[in-house]
Write a structure and sequence with these properties.
This protein is α+β, with helices and mostly antiparallel strands. It is built from six helices and ten strands; from the N terminus they run αβααβββββαααββββ. The chain has a ten-stranded antiparallel beta sheet, covered by helices on one side. The protein is globular, with a radius of gyration of 18 Å.
Length: about 280
């Protein structure tokens, strides 16, 4: 983590992200999947369903983030990108499954900077991770990870009129106090804002916050259990935007709307009724 703190702190001198970095790649070939690590990860996020079929043991869809993370990290730390990592937050995630990945399957991952754009809140960076069979002939999974490099200036945006969200179902999710450390240990994401209170405070946060991917992974596990009957054969993917940080120990409420066009819309709120995840969609087959 000390090495990460040094690189993140050094990046704070960057003033503006390099738009010319669109297309930057970091690929990972000949990936060997450790069954023990897969099970440990699934246990941390509450995904017991990927292990239910022992004969065709499949990866939890969110383990794809663990496999892709070294490549994504290489991109974020690339000097050509010129990104200010101190002000970076995970703002959104999409995962689309074409075919479940099973244990002992050889795969390769291509991570690519798809787009960089300016928003009222700061600069938006989108990195696409595509997982293929080792020979590259079959596309197994696609994920899009969105990062926001927050602007130093506080911007005031007009509130858009939005139709009220009508929840058909409601589920509770308790976040363990040590969940940040648990997730870091199985994911390899040791960003100090999730582990070090002093660093988190320096980044303008009230304390260490939960990884956005961990929050969504835990929510995904609840939704698969409740809406897909614990069977990934009925699951096609998920997408969501992160609207507010989650603190360790919080109790979240998952609100789910009626299924429409092969997806369930959902939102996640904290105890104060504030959205921590919005525009959520759980895609089903």
């Amino acid at each position: 983590m000390i090495k990460d703190i040094f690189k993140i702190t050094l990046s704070s001198f960057s003033k503006k992200i390099n738009i010319a970095a669109v297309g930057l790649e970091s690929n990972i070939d000949k990936i060997l999947i450790d069954a023990k690590k897969v099970s440990e990860f699934a246990d941390v996020i509450g995904d017991v369903f990927c292990n239910s079929d022992k004969k065709n043991h499949m990866l939890s869809p969110f383990y794809s983030a663990v496999l892709a993370y070294p490549g994504i990290k290489n991109i974020l730390y690339d000097k050509n990108l010129k990104i200010n990592l101190v002000r970076l937050v995970h703002s959104g995630q999409e995962i689309e499954i074409f075919r479940p990945i099973v244990m002992n399957e050889k795969i390769r991952i291509i991570n690519t900077v798809k787009s960089i754009s300016a928003t009222s809140a700061g600069e938006l960076l989108n990195i696409e991770s595509s997982i293929f069979t080792a020979d590259g002939n079959e596309h197994l999974l696609r994920s899009l990870t969105s990062f926001l490099i927050r602007s130093k200036k506080k911007t005031i945006t007009e509130k858009k009129n939005k139709e009220p969200f009508h929840a058909e179902f409601e589920f509770k999710l308790a976040v363990p106090f040590n969940q940040g450390k648990r997730y870091a240990s199985v994911s390899g994401d040791n960003n100090p804002i999730h582990l070090n209170k002093i660093f988190a405070n320096a980044a303008g946060l009230p304390g260490t916050i939960l990884h956005g991917m961990c929050t969504l992974a835990m929510v995904n596990s609840v939704l698969v259990r409740e809406l897909c009957k614990g069977d990934y054969k009925n699951y096609a993917g998920i997408s969501a935007r992160f609207s507010k940080y989650v603190l360790p120990g919080e109790v979240l409420t998952i609100e789910v709307g009626r299924c429409d066009n092969n997806f369930f819309p959902f939102e996640v709120k904290n105890i104060d009724g504030i959205n921590v995840i919005k525009n959520g969609k759980l895609f089903v087959k």
